Amino acid sequence: MKLSLSPSLLTFLEELVIPYLAGYSYFAKQGTPLFGELAHGSDGIREYLAELFHSKSTKTPEEFLRLASLRKRCVNKEPCPCGSGRRLGRCHNRVVNALRTRLSRSWFRDEYLRVLKQLPMALSPSG
């Protein structure tokens, strides 16, 4: 996502490589991660998605990916995956719409399909 705003080698180095190397160096010296650490496996994917969509709930944040892959007009009437009980159009619509504009609906569709392969239990309603 950082490269989508300015796709250049300089952006890649400044925004991704340098922070990674600084974090790794800090971890090697101090034994704790500089930027915090997500859980591993399915829990880590869910934590990342919840953080990306500014949701406190990590139960079904992959649903945000599915909703971001659909048209705004249809999605705003769906229940918000954050668990607030409100529809998306009255809850997290600004976050979803901003990310959709930045990356495109097709990107979110592809990402949703990729995440479903990693989170097989996301297919079940009790998920």
Tell me what the structure shows:
With 127 residues, the chain is an all-alpha fold. It folds into two domains: 8-37, no CATH class; 42-119, no CATH class. 57% of the residues lie in helices and 0% in strands. It is built from seven helices and no strands. The chain has helices at 2-5, 9-30, 42-52, 62-68, 72-75, 93-103, 105-118. Helix 4 (62-68) packs antiparallel against helix 7.
Tell me the number of structural domains. Answer: 2
- Number of contiguous helices: 7
Low-confidence stretches: 122-127
How many strands, which pairing sense, and closed or not: the largest β-sheet? Answer: none
Estimate the helix proportion, in percent: 55-70%
Series of secondary-structure elements, N-terminal to C-terminal:
HHHHHHH
Counted beta strands: 0
* Net shape: globular
Mean pLDDT: 86
Distance between the termini: 27 Å
Radius of gyration, whole Å? 16 Å
Structural class: mainly alpha
Strand content: under 5%
Topology at a glance:
Blueprint: H1 2-5, H2 9-30, H3 42-52, H4 62-68, H5 72-75, H6 93-103, H7 105-118
Which features would summarize this protein structure in a list?
2 domains, 127 residues, disordered C terminus, single chain, mainly alpha, globular, 7 helices
Write a brief structural summary:
The protein has 127 residues and is mostly helical. It folds into two domains: 8-37, no CATH class; 42-119, no CATH class.
